[in-house]
Design brief:
Shape: globular
Strand content: 25-35%
Pfam family, one: Acetyltransf_CG
Protein name: N-acetyltransferase
CATH class: Alpha Beta
Organism: Aeromicrobium senzhongii
CATH topology: Aminopeptidase
Distance between the termini: 45 Å
Largest sheet: 5 strands, mixed
Helix content: 10-25%
CATH architecture: 3-Layer(aba) Sandwich
């Protein structure tokens, strides 16, 4: 399988994936002072089932984590489902309580 390349295009408020030099998909968002709201993810039908959506979600979540400035609000059904399968990112989701020392609340 050809490698999936993902980039952040902040001017267009989206993450873009390509493979084999062809546009393969994108994830759009809205940015506020406190949040990145993922609103829509789309994968070209020619590339469905090849991990493009997962590559977009992972890259975007890692990018948001590295920035450290905002929480994530996944309105996009794909992002919601992806986060449900990748629980390590759930603490980044808006409204999820922060873990406490010792695991007690």
């Amino acid at each position: 399988m050809t490698e999936i390349h993902v980039v952040h295009d902040p001017a267009r408020l989206r993450y873009e994936a390509s493979t084999g030099g062809e546009a393969a998909g994108f994830a759009e968002y809205i940015r506020t002072d406190d949040l990145i709201v993922f609103t829509h993810t789309e994968v070209d039908p020619r590339f469905e089932g090849l991990g493009v959506g997962s590559a977009l979600a992972r890259f975007a979540m890692d990018d948001v984590r590295a920035d450290g400035q905002r929480k994530v609000m996944p309105l996009c059904p794909f992002f919601k489902g992806w986060l449900g399968r990748h629980r390590e990112y759930v603490p980044m989701v808006y409204g999820v309580p922060e873990p406490t020392a010792g695991g007690l609340t």
